[in-house]
Amino acid sequence: MTEPHWIIHLPTTLTSVDEAAALSMALRRSLGHVLAIDFGETTLSEEDRQSVRTRVWCDAPLPRSRRCLLPVAHSGRCH
What we know:
With about 80 residues, the chain is of the alpha+beta class. The protein has one helix at about 15-30, and strands at about 45, 50-55, 60, 65.
């Protein structure tokens, strides 16, 4: 049996999904070196609708056990 993973819920004072996505992108840029954080699984939700989540990253599988680093609705090929 594997140990459970923990999720950190980080409330903000932001009032738009675009601002929240921009913050998550800034956090990924500044903390991307921390291997304990799985930024590919980042989702956003409204404060009172936490069961409705919006993905931030494409996270599609790529060769050599990598994941796409682009936003979820990117155009063109993953990288």
